[in-house]
Amino acid sequence: QVQPVESGGGLVQAGDSLRLSCAASGGTVANLGMGWFRQAPAKEREFVAAVSYTGTSTYYARAVKGRFTISRDNAKSTVNLQMNNLKPEDTAVYYCAVATARGAYSDSVMYQYWGQGTQVTVSS
Q1: Once rounded to an integer, what is the mean pLDDT over residues 31-43?
Q2: What confidence tier does 120 reach under pLDDT thresholds 50, 70, 90?
C-alpha cells in the first residue's frame, strides 16, 4: 500500500507563494495518477490539481488554473504543488491523494490513498 505524507503548508499573505510536497511512502506509485484536493471549514472537499503517472498530463480546477502548478518526480515518489499569487479563498487543508482507478482526475472516488493534510492559510 501507499501512504502519502504532505508538507509545506503555512501562513502567508495574499499574493505570496507556497510549495507543497507529497511523499508517497510505503510503496511505489508507478502507473498511478496523483492529485491534490482541499477542504475549507464548513465546505466540501474540492479538487485542486492532478498529474498523470508520466507527468505529461496535468489537470487544474478553474479556481487555481494559471496560479498553481503540479508536478511529480517518480524516482522520489513525490508530487509537488507550486502555489503562486495565493488568495484568501485558497485557505484550506490540502490533501494529497493517489489514484488507483482510471477515470476523471477530479473525481475523488478515483483515489484510494490519502494523506492527513497540511494547512494553508492566506491572510488578506
Answers
A1: 90
A2: very high
pLDDT over 90 (residue 123): yes
Pairing of strands 10-13, 118-123: parallel
What 89-92 contacts at long range (C-beta under 8 Å, 24+ apart), as own/partner pairs, is 89/63, 89/122, 90/38, 90/64, 90/120, 90/122, 91/40, 91/120, 91/121, 91/122, 92/38, 92/39, 92/40, 92/43, 92/120
CB 81 within 8 A of CB 49: yes
Residue 89: phi and psi, rounded to 5, are -70, -5
DSSP character at residue 108: G
Residue 82 neighbours by CB under 8 Å, 6+ apart: 17, 19, 68, 69, 70, 71
- The yes-or-no verdict on residue 24 having pLDDT over 90 is no
Please give the backbone phi and psi of residue 109, each rounded to the nearest 5 degrees, phi first.
-70, -15
